Amino acid sequence: MLAVEGLNAWWGHAQALFDVHLQVGEGELVVLQGLNGAGKST
To answer: In the structure, how many helices (H) and strands (E) does the chain have?
Structure first.
């Protein structure tokens, strides 16, 4: 299992993520989709 709790991220002075909680169970598939250059791999 992968679990993330209370994740916050900033891009310069702008807050990109605020208090993100995510839980992925064994055998589940998750897709992160976005435009080129949107920062998916960051």
So the answer is: 0, 2
Domain extent at residue 18: 1-42
Please provide the distance, in angstroms rounded to a whole number, between the alpha carbons at the two ends of the chain.
21
Domain count, the chain: 1
Residue owning tokens 């250059």: 37
Give residues with Cβ within 8 angstroms of 1, minimum separation 6.
23, 24, 25, 26
What are the pLDDT digits (tens) for 10-41? 989 999 899 999 999 999 999 989 999 888 88
